[in-house]
Design a protein that fits this description.
The protein is built from nine helices and 16 strands. The protein is an alpha/beta fold. A five-stranded parallel β-sheet has the order 4-3-5-6-7. A five-stranded antiparallel β-sheet has the order 12-13-14-15-16, covered by helices on one side. A hairpin with a 2-residue loop joins strand 13 and strand 14. The N terminus is likely disordered.
């Protein structure tokens, strides 16, 4: 299977088995882990480029496609996520942020098992193979036989990480172990509860090697040449809001900037944020330190409205040629929020 179109985020659109392993089926929507705004398919152009449908119109998948992706994620997941069915929404958000931080997650209980494996066999296999297990305790979870059984297996294996979603107390045996709090969590990567979970996961599942400065310099130079710009010296950038490390080099025009992802799912990819949007992002919003995180695309004209737009880990910036105003939009949960505007 392949596609002739290039994804707007400039990821190669030819499909390999490694590409398929990065895809995660959630209900009747598809999440492309290469594009980070997967709950908002408008901002996940890879799916359209790879599969040739318009995700703005139809997110449904045929059974044959769904069955083809039973073995999603990495062959051995870094994280097994255990939760009650009623807590699926927050589990989905947590899984997405962990994936954006560079780990693979097995979490979708609703996926159909393979024909040669029963549902319980699939769960047992993934539970044993995972490097760590995150259990989300809630008033519903403490009543779930599945959650309690998975927590016990994780405890016996010495790879249990716990988080509390509400005021319900975990079963007695787990109360002596440290538990992160996601009660009232705003579903962002900067919340104390998520930061604690991310640190705990890092203890069990070391993330991939971080790109070296010399490697980043080469990638940034290639991007600069391909985008017909010149850049200054390469320097390490601040860690982004979702925990991605990077290097950057500012363009010689004093406006644009090239970032190279040094970790995470886009490790080794460089993106050029140019002209007014680049100035707004790098000099006004402070680049990688902003709520937007790192760029995940070059500037594009989207939706047929003629507005130049650059996409980032947690949102986008668009510039209106009519008003000359740049708008920075961050995505929080299922909402879009304009957090900064400037006349450029």
């Amino acid at each position: 299977m392949s596609a002739s179109r290039m994804c707007p985020c400039r990821i190669d659109s030819s499909i390999t088995w490694n590409d398929l392993k990065r895809l995660q089926i959630i209900g009747k929507s598809i999440k492309c882990i290469k594009c980070l705004h997967s709950d908002y398919i408008r901002y996940s152009p890879c799916c359209s480029a790879l599969f040739g449908w318009n995700p703005r119109v139809d997110l449904s998948l045929g059974n044959s496609l769904g069955e083809s992706f039973v073995a999603r994620g990495a062959e051995v997941a870094d994280i097994f996520l255990s939760y009650a069915r009623d807590d699926r929404e927050i589990a989905a958000c947590l899984a997405e942020l962990l994936i954006q931080s560079g780990w693979s997650v097995w979490w979708d209980r609703e996926i159909q098992p393979r024909a040669d494996l029963g549902f319980d066999q699939v769960i047992e296999r993934e539970l044993q193979a995972a490097r760590c297990v995150i259990v989300l305790w809630s008033s519903k979870a403490i009543e779930s036989h599945w959650v309690k059984a998975e927590a016990l297996e994780a405890l016996d294996s010495g790879k249990l990480i716990q988080a509390r979603l509400d005021d319900a107390k975990p079963p007695l045996v787990y109360r002596t172990f440290q538990t992160a709090s996601l009660a009232g969590w705003d579903k962002t990567a900067v919340g104390d509860g998520f930061v604690a979970i991310r640190a705990a996961v890092g203890h069990f599942a070391q993330k991939e090697m971080v790109l070296s400065k010399s490697e980043a310099e080469s990638i940034i130079q290639e991007v600069a040449v391909s985008r017909r710009t010149e850049v200054g010296s390469v320097q390490a950038a601040a860690e982004s809001v979702v925990g991605t490390q990077s290097f950057k080099a500012r363009a010689s025009d004093g406006k644009g900037v090239v970032y190279c992802h040094a970790s995470g799912t886009l490790r080794g990819r460089g993106f050029y944020v140019r002209k007014g949007i680049g100035y707004f992002y790098e000099y006004i919003l402070q680049g990688a330190e902003s709520p937007l995180g790192l760029p995940v695309s070059h500037e594009e004209v989207v939706d047929g409205n003629g507005f130049p737009t650059s996409f980032f880990e947690r949102g986008y910036i668009e510039w209106s040629p009519e008003s000359s105003v740049a708008r920075a939009v961050v995505i929080v949960g299922d909402q879009e929020e304009v957090f900064a505007e400037r006349l450029i």
